[in-house]
Specification:
By secondary structure, this protein is of the alpha/beta class. The protein has two domains: about 80 residues, Urease, subunit C, domain 1, CATH 2.30.40.10; about 300 residues, Metal-dependent hydrolases (TIM Barrel, Alpha-Beta Barrel). About 30% of the residues lie in helices and about 20% in strands. Helix 7 packs parallel to helix 8. The longest helix is centred in the middle third of the chain and has 18 residues. The protein is globular.
């Protein structure tokens, strides 16, 4: 496949062409020329678009494709179509399947199913056996089979000793752990953020303390054991301060934020729409401002979609009984760009989707430069539009973003000598 990308602004802090408007020639999956102007030859597909920008391919560190076991919610193949539609050329696949990705056979199943896809899949194995929070999983076997890290997804680990052993063991196999922070003895059966809105609508609240006290415990264990820890989705002002202090101590800790937590606050819940029932919950405007500042200051490293498909039987229920989660791959860039474009430079926003997650995962840097394999995302960062169901490729449409005005449109992705628009 030969492609010529015409008059695209490069957004890539690792590229010698960063900030320049260039033509990019791709031949057999490799960037062979980057010049001010390239004349297309016969048989070369030309890509031109208004406001065209190009960056290294985006990577989402937290998606759930429900396959195997919950294919009625989503399949692996369709999930990968959602990722490409959202501009992602790589995704970290979480272990929220049935059975969970808790042994080498499960990791190899995912890797084999996805190996010929345009989107690279990076499986994350469970931290504990069967996500039960009792015994360590078969971390070494899964690492050999392709697991890039270990996490029990949304199941916060109650057993402090298990976190300690996981951190110690992961160092021996040159890996790391990802752990969700939610002290269930505090959040218990909470449904939404604890605050003015939860009181007004009469739904049981989840205190910010539930996230922060578990995060503090995990940071103290990390300080004791050493190793590497990633917190996938922080959501409170207090969590920002805890991560900032941990980084000041030179602890090897990184963190992410879900795109929806940068745009939506808990006032959205006044209509009792279960599409806004997520974990971590939508917080206050004050928390959102702190998260944005945390990104600007480099305390938060990555932004994720936290893509979590749910079928209608899991969402079209009373709020108490509905499952957590919303689909987010297709809307992710429009959401985060809408929320952040006045706070962060476009280069910094793109770094949170490209350079930073690859650094955390220990992957080679992907760059827009001659001689590199073409792993690219094409987008228009200024295009405004109203997000609707037609934008969603996911089998289920459980999105709280439908009807919202977004800023930033994905034009296409290039990877593995394939192009999808």
């Amino acid at each position: 496949m030969n492609l010529l990308i015409k008059q695209a602004t490069v957004v890539d802090s690792t590229s010698p062409h960063n900030g320049r408007v260039v033509d990019i020639l791709i031949e057999k999956g490799v960037i062979t020329q980057i010049k001010k102007t390239i004349t297309p030859e016969k048989g070369v597909k030309t890509i031109e678009a208004e406001g065209l920008h190009v960056s290294a391919g985006w990577l989402d560190m937290q998606v759930n494709f429900c396959d195997p076991g919950y294919e009625h919610k989503e399949t692996l193949n369709n999930g990968l179509k959602s990722a490409a539609k959202g501009g992602f050329t790589s995704v970290c696949l979480m272990s929220g399947t049935n059975p969970p990705l808790h042994n080498k056979a499960q990791i190899e199943y995912v890797a084999n199913r996805a190996k010929d896809n345009l989107v690279d899949v990076l499986p994350i194995g469970t931290l504990s056996h069967n996500q039960e929070g009792k015994d360590l999983s078969e971390m070494y076997d899964m690492k050999i089979s392709g697991a890039i890290a270990f996490s029990d997804y949304k199941k916060s680990t109650k057993d402090a000793g298990l976190i300690l052993r996981a951190l110690q063991y992961s160092q021996n196999i040159n890996s790391f752990i990802i752990t969700h922070c939610d002290d269930k003895t505090i959040s218990h059966d909470g449904l939404v953020n604890e605050g003015v809105t939860s009181t007004k609508i009469g739904l049981k609240g989840i205190p910010a303390l539930a996230e922060e006290i578990m995060l503090q415990r995990n940071i103290q264990i990390l300080e004791y054991t050493g190793g590497k820890m990633h917190i996938p989705t922080i959501s409170t002002k207090g969590s920002i301060e805890l991560i900032k202090k941990a980084k000041a101590k030179k602890l090897n800790i990184t963190c992410g934020v879900a795109a929806y937590n940068l745009l939506l606050d808990d006032s959205e819940l006044e209509g009792f729409d279960t599409n806004y029932k997520v974990n971590p919950p939508l917080r206050t405007k004050e928390d959102i401002d702190a998260l944005k500042k945390g990104l600007a200051d480099g305390v938060i490293d990555v932004i994720v979609s936290d893509h979590a498909p749910q079928d209608i039987e899991s969402k079209d229920l009373e709020f108490d009984h509905a499952d957590n989660g919303m689909v987010g791959l297709e809307s992710c860039f429009g959401v985060l760009n809408m929320a952040l474009s006045s706070k962060l430079s476009l280069e910094n926003i793109v770094d949170a989707l490209t350079k930073n997650p690859r650094s955390i995962l220990g992957l080679a840097t992907v760059s827009v430069k001659e001689g590199a394999e073409a792993n690219l995302t094409l987008f228009n960062p200024t295009k405004k539009y109203v997000f609707d169901k037609s934008h969603i490729v996911a089998a289920n449409k459980n999105s709280g973003i439908i009807g919202k005005e977004l800023k930033g449109e994905v034009i296409g992705v290039v990877n593995k000598n394939m192009y999808l628009s």
